[in-house]
Amino acid sequence: MPRIKFSEATLSTPSPASQTPALEHESVVTKFFRATEIDARMLGMIAALLLVWAIFDVWSGIISHDDGLLGGAFLTPRNLWTLLVQTSSIAVMSTGMVLLIVMRQIDLSVGSMLSLIAVGTAVLQVYQLAPALGVGHPAIWVLGVAACLALGTLIGAFNGFLVAYAKIPAFIVTLGGLIAYSGIAFLLAKGETVAPMDQTFEVFGGGIQASWLGPFWSWILAAAACCTIAYAVVNGRRQRIRFNFPLRPVWAEAFLIAIGSFAVLGTTWVMNSYPWPQGVMEDYAKTHNLVIPAGVENRDGSAICMAGEQVVHCLNGLMHYTGFSLPALIAIGVCLGMTFIATRTSFGRYVYATGGNPEAAELAGINTKWLTVKVFALMGFLVGVSSIISSARLNAATNALGQTNELYVIAATVIGGTSLAGGVGTIYGAMIGALVMQSIVSGMSLLNLPAASQNMVVGGVLVLAVYLDQQYRRRLK
Amino acid sequence: MAQVAKSSTRKSTPVRIVGKTKPVKAADLKTHESPAAVAGRHSFAPTRGTPLIEMRNISIAFGGIKAVDHASIDLFPGEVVGLLGHNGAGKSTLIKVLSGAYLRDAGQIFVDGKEITIANPRDAKAQGIETIYQTLALADNVDAAANLYLGRELKTRLGTLDDAAMESETRKVMFRLNPNFRRFKEPVSKLSGGQRQSVAIARAIHFNARILIMDEPTAALGPQETAQVGALIKQLKAEGIGIFLISHDLHDVFDLADRLVVMKNGKVVGTANTKDVTHDEVLGMIIAGKCPKGAIPGPGATRDGV
User: Fold this and answer.
1) What residues of chain B lie within 8 A of the CB of A346, using their CB?
2) By the CB < 8 Å criterion, does A355 face chain B?
3) Which residues make Cβ contacts (< 8 Å) with residue B210, sequence separation at least 6?
4) CATH 3.40.50.300, chain B: domain bounds
5) How many Å apart are CA A473 and CA A208, to the nearest integer?
6) Which end of chain A is less crowded, N or C, counting CB atoms within 10 A of the terminal residue's CB?
């Protein structure tokens, strides 16, 4: 078959290096955004997140003074570290929800699915594997993890099959799932709490010492991340030169590397400033035959000392820092992996194109039905990941474990800028959305506000976020 | 981009192995062929050889309404066939059967004399059948390059999307169609009607097309852009590509098409060489289904005395 070739006589040769003409009268701000190609929306979301943090820190500081950045209890390493762990489960699921909503689908069943997976695999671990293999056998956690991921993928694919091939709207399929899966979870658990989980499995929850990376490896990881950022920027520039595309100014490239590295190093520094809780430190000292030095009690200190016969908080004594926790690392890893899938693979490209115009995607030769099944299966897989984090963190599984999670996941996705009309949404946006929501929830419990008012605020923030986003988009047009 | 020499299609056509297609043809000549198809072959075949594409007795119904009723059309290499008819005459539906968007209820499709199955758009594209839809069928939320390569993305060695290469190729092909086009980073929803049309056309002609279906390709265009599309059609034709041109504009069709097929109520009224019929006669075919002398009547032609 001949490739169509234009006779060059009638059509002049192309010049791919069509530079976007720089406008003369643009303000410094627009110039900055154009040069760095930073998404102004993302910057707005980060600003909103920082604002929420600042408000909670000041507010909690007014109630009782603490060692936070603004005098409260919110911007402390302890709280921020916990915040990341608490956010991880919702954040992981919201990355999958982004792809679903971008594709004009939705999954209301993720919460119930999480309960079902957690309870199902906990029953397997506690009642089947542990008695058969012996408690603590290494195969237990491996099989437990594999079962969670496999079961999640399977349930997700089942949802997707009903949507794509049986042509039942996703809202109905997953609403049915929301009700049915929690029912199955209740039956499996017989209404009881299934516990305890395997000790190695517990590592995924971030609640025990084995799931903390420690300052040294955290710094190594941070350094590697900084190198990757620099490499990505340089490589991107090289690609643009190769194809003769317009380049970012050098200062903008340097700025991107600097701001990226600053964020990575800053986060690492905060994580590395959170000391082990006293009980964990004490146990560690005992099991490792460490001598706890004598010292003077100081309630503000993070180290432990012996004051006579008693172990107390003190300023200078035995102390370790946690560094990154495993659930936070899993969430970051999922975010990177999903961003890669969404932007660098043809699968991701098809998801966005289908969301933008399902008919066009079909006519372009994309098998949109099979794609739908795959996206639902991916969602299920991510619910499996979250169920591992949640049940390991609780060290138990109950049918209440994932309840109302679907609402938080969808809210995080929508706050993160994913449009329910389809075709638009980013993974990092959903991560920030999840962080905003969890910040509000945990900030309000920090202020001892009742759960009912927490729900009021979260609901209000969701609606407000969508309103602001629409205003922003309208102005952009 | 691997540039392949032009016009290998036409050279390869006579080399077609007769034996391969004989069983199908022998059977069809006796039973399935409509008078129009037979007549069409007799009048054109001797000078042109095997049709690039032949659709025989295609029927498709939607909920009891026969949108296309035993329609037969063909297309030769380097030929432009205009498809005319009222709204709802069945021309877009017939063409969507060819592009794989609809699955036909009955009938056969032959490419180079060989029967093929087209069950979905992928099958059609595999045969080198590319379509510019009336609605353009663009994914509005992604940029021009993503639309151009949708479904057949360029990959890096690692199997990831090679966006830079795709954008580079897109810049080249878009420059030829629309030299002023600069908005490569923006989603196509932000583009003007003419620019969107250029993207749709670029997508159809960028990949090894042998058969091009253009459904109202100039509907959204201004006079200058329309002239550009006309020049493009002539150029593609010179390279041996067969084109189905669906249009409401008689002037366009008379200007560009070698032959025209008129449809009414899902049936073919008649087929004619463009130079053998007048504007008024064609209007008569479209409106009244009256087949003039210069045309070969199809099953949809009104009987004498009506």
Assistant:
1) 153, 155, 161
2) yes
3) A1, A2, B9, B52, B77, B127, B128, B129, B240, B241, B242
4) 21-128+210-306
5) 44
6) C
Is B103 in contact with B85 (CB distance < 8 Å)? no
Position B8 scores a pLDDT of 40
Pick the CATH number of B21-128+210-306 from 3.20.19.10, 3.50.50.60, 3.40.50.300, 3.40.190.10: 3.40.50.300
pLDDT digits (tens, 9 = 90+) for A207-244: 888 899 999 999 999 999 999 999 999 998 998 888 88
CB-based contact, B172 to chain A, within 8 Å = yes
Q: Cβ of A6 and B1 within 8 Å?
A: no
The 10s digit of each residue's pLDDT in A23-43 is: 556 688 888 888 888 888 888
Distance, in Å, from the CA atom of B61 to the CA atom of B69, rounded to the nearest integer, reads 8
Show the beta-strand stretches assigned E in A215-335.
303-307, 310-314
3-state SS, A365-381, equals CCCHHHHHHHHHHHHHH
At residue A87, the 3 state secondary structure works out as helix
- Residue (of A9, A6, A346, A242) closest to B206 by Cα position: A6
What is the Cα–Cα distance from A467 to A457, expressed in whole angstroms?
A: 15
Contact A1 B8 (CB under 8 A): yes
Q: Tell whether ipTM is more than 0.95.
A: no
What are A101-118's pLDDT values in tens digits?
A: 999 999 999 999 999 999
Structure pTM? 0.86
